[in-house]
UniProtKB/TrEMBL annotation:
InterPro entries: Glyas_Bleomycin-R_OHBP_Dase, Glyas_Fos-R_dOase_dom, MMCE/EMCE_epimerase, VOC_core. Gene3D superfamilies: 2,3-Dihydroxybiphenyl 1,2-Dioxygenase, domain 1. This is VOC domain-containing protein. GO terms for molecular function: metal ion binding; methylmalonyl-CoA epimerase activity. The keyword Metal-binding applies. The keyword Metal-binding applies. GO terms for biological process: L-methylmalonyl-CoA metabolic process. Pfam families: Glyoxalase. It comes from marine sediment metagenome.
Amino acid sequence: MVEIINGIQQIGIGVSDVKKVFNWYRKHLDFNILLFEDEAVASLMTQYTNGKTEKRIAYLSLNMIGGGGLEIWQFKDRKPSAPRGPVEFGDLGIYAMKIRCKNLKEMQAYLKELQVADLTEIDNVFCPNFYFTDPFGNRVQMVEDHYVFCKQPSKNGGVLGAVIGVSNMESSLQFYRTMLDYSILEYDNIEAFKDTTKGRFRRVVIKQERKLVGGFGDLLGPTQLELIQVLDSTPVKIFENRLWGDLGYIHLCFDVSGMCSIREKAKKNNHSFTVDSANSFDMGDAAGHFSYMEDPDGTLIELVETHKVPILKSLGLFLNLKNRNPNKTLPKWLVKSLSLHRVKKDR
């Protein structure tokens, strides 16, 4: 089977209160489709949790305008650790998530009313964007993007991508190009930090070709990664001496088809899977095959081949993807039925 990267399924966020985080993003950024909530033991992730199986609760929420979702992840029996110091632009790992936004000025004004922290002015370096920090300490970049899967009365859509700190730009570009089809170079430039004592950094923005897209590809939409390499100082690793699931962005997850083929390609290119659920995972209402690999700096990339998702759980209606043609996207009306999972009140 030919491997297909359908898009970014979700970005994982380690939190201390899953309901509080879900409710904030539901209310203010319209991630109001709660596709699943699951409580279980992360038994396959022990190499990233100090050899101990950790209980966790996870919510997967979507914005139906289009884009990836949020996997909001909380330890059940352990207080999550925060970074030792402020996460700096260019530190190794996921610095920020990118969210598509059709009207930056309106969104910026709305967030200003909310008094979010570290709200920046709109920048036009490679495309219009601005940053803010959510109430839980996570850096978010709003990026002007007009892709729409489903029209909604919202200023923004779902996850467009991520800003990732790297130590060697060429090796990172090779990884993301070879393993995840990010072969379109949008922007490549050496810039100076506004605080000139920090020196320079190289910024590269890449996109996927999307020659062939299947499954939920139309909902997930085009994606964008922004790689940052600090040139005149040594960045720190964001998750150094911390566990997967601790506070911050814990992984970037891609919806894929042809997991077995991707596994072989990863092995051939010296990026072998570090975690592999083999035949299946079961997250209560959803099921499939998931794997993890690391980029050259150890940033965790999750791959998910979805087998089953709930449509209307109360009536026992589930969408079985195992026997569908992976080369074709799902009918739009069928994907829109996920709107049945919309949550209108705080949980």
